[in-house]
Amino acid sequence: MTNIPNLNIVPFVSVDHMMKLVLSVGLDTFLRELADVIEEDFLRWEKFDKTPRIASHSEEGVIELMPTSDGALYGFKYVNGHPKNTKNGRQTVTAFGVLSDVGNGYPMLLSEMTILTALRTAATSAVAAKYLAREESRSMAIIGNGAQSEFQARAFKAILGVNQLRLYDIDSSASLKCQKNLEGQGFSITICKSAEEAVEGADIITTVTADKQCATILTDNMVGPGVHINAVGGDCPGKTELHRDILLRSDIFVEYPPQTRIEGEIQQLPQDHAVTELWQVMAGLVYGRNNERQITLFDSVGFAIEDFSALRYVRSKLAATGLYEELDLLADPDEPRDLYGMLLRCEAAMAGAPSLPMEKIL
Amino acid sequence: MTNIPNLNIVPFVSVDHMMKLVLSVGLDTFLRELADVIEEDFLRWEKFDKTPRIASHSEEGVIELMPTSDGALYGFKYVNGHPKNTKNGRQTVTAFGVLSDVGNGYPMLLSEMTILTALRTAATSAVAAKYLAREESRSMAIIGNGAQSEFQARAFKAILGVNQLRLYDIDSSASLKCQKNLEGQGFSITICKSAEEAVEGADIITTVTADKQCATILTDNMVGPGVHINAVGGDCPGKTELHRDILLRSDIFVEYPPQTRIEGEIQQLPQDHAVTELWQVMAGLVYGRNNERQITLFDSVGFAIEDFSALRYVRSKLAATGLYEELDLLADPDEPRDLYGMLLRCEAAMAGAPSLPMEKIL
Question: Is A104 within 8 Å of B88 when comparing Cβ atoms?
Fold first, then answer.
């Protein structure tokens, strides 16, 4: 871990700095390196404190806290999900996160995570597909062409070499936006008129729609043998994208079962339906894909450890790039037991005199 | 709630701004107004989502998240507790917090809360004593003269008129620091050689020590009739300050029973030992103090709603004082579904050209 002096000052990565960081590292490199850190942390999965995220639901959406710790570092993310936000020009999902030192409890990084979450979600999907999709997979259907779609495309290209995209969205302007954004980046792109058309011949199917209702984006007859399904959009209670019959035909891989059973596609199945933990596949403890006709499904909901990995990766880039500000977030009295004295000294400094009573300066 | 434009920009109150805010409002006024907001929120206690804080324990200490919501606003605090921190010049407790709009999930305030927690803890203690201590209480013993002690003294003076202090700490330099810091602020102060001496004749006994072990700061014979005990220091599993016999002789008042049973003095008692919720006393639903000989005990551990009140109060002061910075914490694409396009535009701006491939600029 890079050593940044003045531990009471917390490095802060703003949205602007995050964009510059991604661009200075290069998006492909950033996604590949981030994927490596995520793999590293998945391989030591058992070392982490794990808990389903703590959600505060309202009629309009949800606000969640996602903490985890590996015993040396502690991380958490704040993230909201408000499907109606786009109507008022706001993001459906925004996020920020903090990484701290378990030994003294001091935050070591505060970072925007709206962009970073998009990147870690895409990197995690691609890492899962590396273990689960057929090796020669080059074409991917992306159903739902909103804010996450281009990141998925870029991660699958950077990490797996996927370069043929078949896009579909109920709003065709979203597909056009996605196509335009990915222009000149080495993809062959087909915009499709239906989800059925999009999945034709695709090696991988990514579903990443945003509705907060049980929807059926994919029906059973649309999924052929050998396909890997990367189900990203269903991520809270009542929000699913796949028909239940697909789940019954698939081998299902998840991040953290207690959370996925609440939030993922498998909320449609009995609590004891067999699923495989992705980290166990990575660690070589269990098989991922056995054969060319098997349907594999990564039921992704996003887990705290991925955010921890992302914060850890971002922090490792700070010293070299300098792309952060210093935030005066933690009180730093000269004598730790003298927090009140710090106020008195601030008062004296403001008054330009050493001993005025506090109430009288302003 | 004050309207601050640019909802993607989050107002940030640094340590420096918090000190200036407290000093510009005036510490007494700040404590009184904060106490009023805390009372306001305790009076609508049933409207809040409540949960015991989410703790991540390690050998060195604890990191906690404390979320709550009243349905319109959501707040959470990050707080650590690391007793050994002072050895390395760090605070035992540091904190920061966020207030958000439940309707869209966007943060509306990020604030330091190390100083603010000290203020809200003291204000809450004083509010509790207003309902529980004898009316003519003017003298208070403070056992434990660390970072919280002066704030307790100032809050009890501002809100209840307590002006006689009897200080004791196992480290006499802490008592001297406390005395010096409170000089010229209208207190009559006695430094005592023992806890026994400190409690002699005190109307109120405040215990606010910092050890993370079961300690016995007060024994049964030290507590006379009519006293109000403000037990602040015991606030996590295994950390208590009072002998069990005192608890058995007292009427015990708590913030949120499920959390206090884990963290408070009452962790020494059976889970079904009767306690009274403070908000019910405030609301006039149950009695606080019945008679002049009753021993009342506020078993304070600090609850999320107090932090929520504190964040709400701080935010109400921002527009008038301007004591905040603007933090670029939330991504704000022109089109909410076009997060990736925001990256592309940043790239173009950095390159001074509109269409370079992302990897090639730097």
Answer: yes
